[in-house]
Design brief:
Elements (H helix, E strand, L loop, with lengths): L1 H10 L8 E9 L3 E8 L5 E7 L7 H19 L9 E4 L8 E5 L4 E2 H8 L4 H20 L2 E2 L8 E6 L2 E6 L6 E2 L1 H8 L18 H4 L6 H17 L9 H9 L8 H4 L2 H9 L11 H9 L25 H6 L2
Antiparallel strand pairs: 1-2, 2-3, 3-5, 4-5, 6-8, 7-10, 8-9
Helix pairs in contact: 4-7, 4-11
Length: about 325
């Protein structure tokens, strides 16, 4: 409630002049709160992501989070792609409640979908993950590595009656050194690898080594595999188990029915534990993906049983069928 009132007050200050009407809180995390609001001029819904800090937060940690938030704003404000969340505005980050405004995507996270409805159909999975790979291709061409590709950072919706995926959360993205100097003027430390999400981030990221474009391909491969099977490729009840599976030399497990298919071969190329052995070209991956026939794959994968019968707020039947 305190965060809600604070954002309402900030939205009525001179820089925004009451342009946005705050509707409701969507979710609250450890470091940020997300609200839904309406643009009173365009009548479009938007999302407001606000940072919040605990009173006992270390000063250095607070400055690090603010720098990361600033970098996310600068990155997203320069990106324009149909499968990447669209930046709209932000307030002055020097205050005690920095926030950023994004477009609102009326859909459901891939993470929620997989938990509620199990695996996607093969055609739908290829459609959605091709869109995400095109977004990755685009940000890589801009000198940006996402570093946190996972189901909860992908929103599924519909556009023109077809499945549409949107990649979000560039909070721990890193930049090529040249881009840092030319466009963002950030301290070099902000261009270094940062920890991602255990179970999805690449082995080199967990080890604190230099992260490259191939790291994003690895994460994309894990998410793709989860779309097809309905369960995380790397799982465990403890952080230690997740780290062990990620850092061991044992290859990521791919179902036998998939290994014998060209799609399995493509995933095998991006899921190598050694970065230098992975595919390094997003455009080639997209092209290869477009050439794959999935008719003989449908129904072969061990799909997860759907635990719920009720339908979500959008027509996920079409998403599951790839229509």
């Amino acid at each position: 409630m305190e965060n809600l009132q604070k954002i309402k007050r900030l939205l009525n200050e001179k820089s925004f002049s009451g342009k946005y009407e705050l509707l409701n809180q969507i979710k609250e995390g450890l470091f940020s709160t997300v609200f839904k609001a309406k643009d009173k001029i365009s009548h479009q819904d938007v999302v407001i992501k606000s940072l919040h800090f605990s009173p006992d937060l270390d000063k250095v940690e607070k400055l690090t989070r603010i720098a990361s938030f600033e970098q996310e704003c600068q990155i997203t404000s320069r990106l324009s792609h149909p499968n990447i969340i669209r930046f709209l505005s932000r307030n002055d980050i020097s205050g005690d409640s920095p926030f950023v405004i994004f477009e609102y995507v009326n859909g459901i996270s891939l993470d929620e979908h997989l938990k509620l409805y199990g695996a996607l159909g093969a055609e739908a999975a290829i459609t959605i993950m091709s869109q995400i790979m095109d977004a990755i291709r685009y940000i890589h061409s801009c000198g940006i590595i996402h570093c946190d590709i996972k189901p909860s950072n992908i929103i599924l919706s519909e556009r023109a009656g077809k499945p549409h995926a949107v990649l979000l959360d560039f909070g721990i993205s890193i930049l090529s050194p040249a881009l840092c100097r030319k466009e963002f003027h950030h301290r070099p430390a902000l261009s270094q690898a940062r920890s991602g999400t255990p179970g999805y981030c690449s082995p080199e990221q967990l080890r604190g080594e230099n992260v490259t474009y191939r790291s994003d391909f690895y994460m994309w491969g894990l998410v793709f595999l989860e779309c097809l099977t309905g369960v995380p490729a790397i799982s465990g009840s403890t952080l230690g188990q997740l780290y062990y599976q990620s850092l061991s030399t044992a290859p990521v497990s791919i179902p036998a029915a998939l290994l014998a298919h060209p799609l399995g071969y493509l995933l095998h190329k991006v899921l190598r534990k050694e970065p230098s052995e992975r595919t390094s070209d997003a455009a080639r991956l997209l092209n290869d993906l477009g050439q794959i026939a999935i008719d003989d794959l449908a129904g072969d994968l061990p799909l997860k049983i759907q635990p719920h019968e009720e339908k979500p707020t959008i027509d996920l039947y079409q998403i599951k069928q790839g229509k």
